[in-house]
Amino acid sequence: MTDDKSTWERFFDAHAPLYMDNVFTKNTQREVDFLLEELAPPPGGSILDVGCGTGRHAVELAKRGYAVTGLDLSAAMLEQAAAAARAAGVMADWVHADAARFTLPGRYDAAICLCEGSFGLLGQADDPIEQPLAILRNISASLKPGAKALLTVLNGANMFRRYQDQDVREGRFDPLRIVESYAMAPREGQPTIPVRERAFVATELVLMCRLAGMPVLEIWGGTAGNWGRRQLELDEIELMVVARKEA
User: Fold this and answer.
1) pTM, entire model
2) What span, in angstroms and rounded, lies between the C-alpha atoms of 247 and 214?
3) Which CATH superfamily is domain 8-244 in?
4) Fewest Cβ atoms closer than 10 Å to its Cβ: which of 55, 136, 139, 182?
């Protein structure tokens, strides 16, 4: 995101204290079990969490002995993450940065980007191809050769099935870019904030990951609470991408 203290950063700064009340945050341990099985980082290895939010995956990974770096656009979400790490008695590095515009000095054994923590969240002026591609390139540049990345992203098939021609005419959905535009309040009693979200189809994800130097290994259904090595269903909210950094 390139323009945003005004949209997503502002939204998540206000929403941070309530984030862990969302229903999709309730399966962290099981999700981390799946991540470790699929990514197979070495014991004590380094893992980058892009769009880490309140750190629910990052903290759980740190509890299991991994060296974790969590990166997020929202300082308030990172404050929640740091507090969660202190409460759990673990250490992690927290980086306040835009996922489309960061560089890190180290190279990681694995990377995750989950639950629309960054990938698919567009600022009002962001290009819907270049912005997510920049995120993928940054993730790729942060990985060791041969290391794997796992992302969950909004499912384009679901978005197409939810919207009608009237939504296109009224500007709520752009079918050419698979972008929805709407406004929501970050917490009860606060004014709404206009936001844009991008969904993806498998073929473009394969191409974008290839351009970023991370060929796709698998695409599965990835809706929170229902992760698995299974075929994507058309109506589910998210899909899962597993890619590997080129050697």
Assistant:
1) 0.95
2) 9
3) Vaccinia Virus protein VP39 (3.40.50.150)
4) 182
